[in-house]
Amino acid sequence: MENIWDLLEDHEVGNSNFQDCHLVTLRAGGTMYGMYKQALRELYRRVRGVRELESDRALLIIDTQEHEQALVAMEPGFARQRTEIELRRTALRREECERAIADTYRELAVFYAQAQGLKEQVGVLTAERRWNYERELWEYRVREMAALDIGSGQRHLSPQTIEHLNALPKEDREKILADLKDDKLLQKHNQVVEEREQIIRQLEIPDEKIFQLPRIADALGQNSPGLPPKK
User: Fold this and answer.
1) pLDDT in the model for residue 225
2) Is 205 exposed, middle or buried, given 0-12, 13-18 or 19+ CB atoms closer than 10 A?
């Protein structure tokens, strides 16, 4: 019979590497810029998470020291028993915190690598370039909505798709409607999906190589706000 703790070693607190690549960045991204934008969004969340967890761990260490110090001068009784229980509970919370930190760093490494790879292809984001990228991204998303409507057997676009379509610039709207009229919408959308899948495959990192990436702590910087000072 397997030990429970041995089994829990296989437990991932967050998303899997595959999920982060295909069901987060690829699915939500759409275009090259869209994938870069999604990778940055996820990277930012993990950075915030690491900062919070590192602070939580620092506070738990202080709590542990306070409980240990208090026990030195305590006589036997309910107060001492209560402090001993609090000390054990603090140790459990710290253990959970350490697990969460390790898993958050794992996901942070994945999205950091994704963002770096995509940045090389997206280039410098000037205001004009970002505008054009955003326009391309929203044309893709509306195309995807229309393709899903048609691909699911509907004979017409859904009200939500029409609403988004009408919000696009005239030129983009006319391109989508022309492809829809010529029955080319699904074909073109499937082609784009295949192309973006090739991009994300180039950014995949095998699980065993995640922690061979450059140290995330170095990338964050030792003096990153919110992180305890390095000793």
Assistant:
1) 47
2) middle
SS (H, E, C) the chain: CCCHHHHHCCCCCCCCHHHHHHHHHHHHHCCHHHHHHHHHHHHHHHHHHHHHHHHHHHHHHHHHHHHHHHHHCCCCCHHHHHHHHHHHHHHHHHHHHHHHHHHHHHHHHHHHHHHHHHHHHHCCCCHHHHHHHHHHHHHHHHHHHHHHHHHCCCCCCCHHHHHHHHHCCHHHHHHHHHHHHCCCHHHHHHHHHHHHHHHHHHHCCCHHHHHHCCCHHHHHCCCCCCCCCCC
Whether the per-residue pLDDT at 223 is higher than 70: the answer is no
Residue 195 has pLDDT above 60, yes or no: yes
Q: Domain locations in the chain?
A: 15-123
Return the biggest CA–CA distance within the chain. 86
In angstroms, the CA 28 to CA 144 distance is 11
